[in-house]
Amino acid sequence: MTVEQTLRVTSIRSQNPRGFGGCIFSAKPIDDQGRVEDAGSYFVVKATGSALGGARVEPGQWWKVAGEPSRRLLDVNGYQVAETQIEASSAVLLRPSGEHIVSFMADSPAFEGIGQVKARRLWETFGERLYEHLDCGNVAELSKVLTPASATQVVGAWAEHGDSRTLQWLQAQGFDLQIGRKVMQFFGPETAEKLEEDPYRLLSFCANWRKTDSLARSHFGVAEDDPRRLQAAVEEACYRTFSAGHTSVLSARLMVTLEGILGAQTKTFKWRSLVPTALSQGLSNGSFVIGHHGVQPLGAMVMERVVAQAVAARLASQVPALLPKDDIDELLLSYEKAERIELNEAQWEAVHLASARPFALITGGAGVGKTTVLKGLYEIYDRAGMAVTQLALAGRAAKRMQEATGRPASTIANFLRNRKDEDLDDRCVVVVDEASMVDIITMSRLCELIGPAPRLVLVGDPAQLMPVGPGLVLHALANVPQVPVAQLTVVKRYSGAIALAAAAIREGIWPELSSDPDAAIAFIPCAGRTSLPNEATIPETVLRLYRQDPANTQILCARRNGPDGAKGLNALCQSALTADAKPVQVWDERHDAYARVGFHLGDPVLCTRNLWDRGLQNGSLGVVVQVDDEPQMLTDDDGEESGLALAWVDWDDGVRRPIVEEMLDDLELGYAITVHKAQGSQWPRVIVPLTGHRLLDRTLVYTAVTRAQRQVLLVGDAAAAKKAVEGLPRAHARQVSLDLILSQLLRGE
């Protein structure tokens, strides 16, 4: 039986759930005046894009929905909760959400005392008439909702700051609230005029191409071959290539990207011939630049130039030697004696190079003694009165750096956030470890913050993983002949089969590997999710191998999803090992019951964000060692309540800490983690599942193998792994201009 119901949207469960428009949302039944008919009742509406007429559903809207209702019983921790679902055959928007004016009033300091609640009450009382009452200064009408004094204050603030035309225009066009807020903050009262002049300006405010292009074509009548559209398509191509990691794009890649945006050429739309004109005209709005290195987004060019200038200035500076050569040699001999080691020739030269130059790279594979060089170098810096600042990209890498050198270390992000405004002086040196993973955004911010005075040393391995973010720094700088590089090649940390295999992989040679799971390094061939009879799959094999020594084993994955992904392997390991253990729970007020949070006693857990106030960093690993029958109240140093301890975790720094509800979004299972999370760390035994996919390359296999101290077991598709190792690393396909810009600066161009 079809029913028709007026509803007010309370929350969005899924926007565009299947990629074809539509929405799944929760709503309260209301009458024609907006009053809730039954406080204990709610509906879940599933509406297709056609049923919604292409409109976007937002909280606060009123909809008249028709469709077949059904009752659904949900099992929530042993309790059954009923909800009414409607498959909408039609849906009519009765009242927009008013989110733009609600947000405008609630967020503006001018409307002091008018928060979200009061602003929304004004909208729900007056709807579109609210604009009229505000424009006319109708205090009497507004006083039906606010106090007379508050209504008077709102009218005065609106007269000075309000903008009915722009807010109504944004709402009528169906703009996303966040984008609308950004656009209005930038253009102010000229918002409608500026966007009508060139609707593709929305691309600069994070609106996607499809939505912007559709709006421009349908609402503003922009033709297929309009120069504004071609210019915007080039801008969009720059955004896409930057998101893919490139900081510049040559013409061939640009054309491929543009075809993905504009489609293939047709008889009526031969866009390829229009691109040169679009490129020329596009220079006027500053969204991209054109040089010898191809087309660059303006921001990418600026960031690369900041880094290039920082390096060039240091290379050109004439600084006196920190210490005489003989003094350095004497200090190194004392260091060798104290540490009971013997530096090889390359390590000795690396210390001298970094001591003599204000900028230097120290590179080399895993285990070649880069940290040993740093400790020796710090002896020189200490004698010369230089203050050392140690940085790394990831929290776990910073922690290992601190442990290895016995000196404080920080993540770059924490340093950028907490560093005082004054520049570091020329008696300081900044050392960045694991520099192969530092992207151009992070490096440019660091160079701007520290200024031109401090020495700068980048330490890393170009053969390991490239940055997740855009650009290349260590890789690009190592390609410039004038940049001083100390390359370490002799493996000192470990030897034997793992070292030999790692060295071969680093050079692009697939080593001969045993299939014996007891060998120091082995490859266990097996299928993905499905296999032949009596043949184990990757998940089954990984689990079997993991169970042999879970206390000393870490599973390292190339990706999160897929048969070799961390997500599925985490679920499998938990199901097999701790499914019957005591669960970690939190009180769910909505259902008046305890709800499981996804962790059990005995589970390893991974912190995925820097939680400085809790002593945790992105990449910290621990094990759930205690789950109380009921959450225990915590108190701070002043005896004040500070939250409920849901469980206790022994973390990898040796400290036991509580899990509180606010942390749950930043924790996940840690049986399996990605190789990116593992860079800078080591475990006695690692298991690495591998299948063929776009993320798999030589650097990923090499980085995974070199995380093992005693044993590494590769599992999965040997042919795919071999192909990845023998092929060029993905970093070679990344188009950047940092090395070219630096070379030009060094030539005085």
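That was protein one. Protein two is written in the same sequence-then-structure order:
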Amino acid sequence: MVEIALLWAAYPTVAAGGVLRHEVAWMPSLGLNLVLRMDGFAWLFAGMVSGVGALVILYARYYMAEDDPVPRFFAFLLAFMGSMTGVVIAGNLIQLAFFWELTSLFSFLLIGYWHHLAAARDGARMALTITATGGLCLFAGVLVLGHIVGSYDLDAVLASGDRIRAHPLYLAALVLILLGALTKSAQFPFHFWLPHAMAAPTPVSAYLHSATLVKAGVFLMARLWPVMAGTDAWFWIVGTAGVTTLILGAYIAIFQNDLKGLLAYSTISHLGLITLLLGLNSRLAMVAAIFHVINHATFKASLFMAVGIIDHETGTRDIRRLSGLNRSMPFTARLALVAAAAMAGVPLLNGFLSKEMFFAEALSAEGPLPFLLDVLPAAATVASAFSVAYSLRFIHGAFFGPDPVDLPLTPHEPPTWMRFPVEILVLACIIIGLLPAATVGPYLDMAAHAALGAATPDYSLAVWHGFNLPLLMSVIALVAGVTLYRLLQGHLGKGEDGAPLIGGLQGQRMFERTMVFLSWRLARTLEGLLGTRRLQPQLRLVVCVAVLAAGWTVWLRGLGPGNLTPSGIDPVLALIWAIGAACAVGAAWQAKFHRLVALILLGGTGLVTCVTFVWFSAPDLALTQLLVEVVTTILLLLGLRWLPKRLDVPGV
């Protein structure tokens, strides 16, 4: 609640187009300062993080069981919330990458919260591996971007769009940064980790997959859109990933038997929609993407919470065992019905408005190979029809039909306060759908102007735009989706989760095979080649690699002082260092023959280090080094007594 209060206190400034900035000097010589920066765009995302987070915390209070370690759960959840807030208000690219990896770490802890379940451990490991690897790519891309601009400060980066796009390293920075964004937002071909993260408690799923973790990727793409978009490379990479994920996720969602699995793949699809909009190199598409981010957070969080209520009160999420819950859980059924209708793009709900904007942008898209863009409206309509089909399956399969039998628990309505967050979010879906300009309009306009500046285009949030092609596409999608569900109804729910025609696209198998290769076969091979029973050969290998790396740098740049001004060498200090070097070499040599002599020589190198600190006027460091030398030498002397006898092993 404190965060929400601070956000509202900052609203007048950011609504007027201002930027709040707080900077703490850290390493100014390297251009690295701790910067908190909030404009209208960051304010909107921070509002979603804190607002949906507060509702999820209230919901989790009634969802979690008494025997769960609840304090640990809320500690992880709040830490994740802080990390995500750090991502959106970071004013420094290095700082952003740091918080980015923190979100991966805390999401790993949240997904694996029920660590006694194998599915939770596997899902957490997969999510951490994919998103943290993408985070390393992002960090490398941030370093390249900072090199191009000459600064890691976000304001400096956002003011250098032309310079970035014209630089020879632009493509390298783009690919690395997009690898981080696409892995975090579960875009094809990295989409497979998100459904396995459903092993987390439902409050975690509702939060991570509606307003936070998976939105970090689209936030980053939207944040850097003004300086990295507008090129063919951006169009092909982002647009191709978006349209593929949009259709593939929607198609697979239809065939899921687990309600959370259905919502997981629908999340993948909607993230693909947002990514596709960002990839179209259109400012209106950018506005539509921000609008759909808001709408998706409302209806997806409410749907996940509704699934949690069903699971909590019936003991199962399997749609094959559920039916007729409308009679025993009428209020929950109506809330889920409205949220699912918003997800399907039914008129007078918020999802319909942003999908209309998506259809309009699909019709007017411009770019290379125009004949491929002609297919985009058809792809958008097909994906929307799939969305209608899986939304119908969710509602019809769980809430209509005969009364359920053999459920683990007798279904009934949840506690009032457990349902309250769902009611708030569903109410937002309705109000935004009926009065978009008066409700979400000011916040969308504030975020769009913060992201696009003076180039923000004119757009309309009117509910009715007359009879036009986007409306026709919406009608076709609704009719086609209902028809598709009726045709598939007799075939759905038979067998395990999975969709036909995608056997070769199961990323989980590729991930598992890769992990087996890296952690077993490759590791065993390297261990056989490099591993020994003695420490000295391994240390020798490490030192040789370090020497080769340093030698390679010297060979490339030449041996010289660089930008430093050479100074004279004091002969006394040179003699002291020569003594230290001789002691170090002697210790390494005597280690093979006489351990006590080696230890005495090692102490000599420590004393030379102490003298060096005193020479350069650092007596505190010299005293610390001297104490460490004394303690470690005594411990090593005591340890010599219990060391085993030497082994004469040939070849090592």
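The longest helix spans residues 118-149. Keep this in mind for the problem set.
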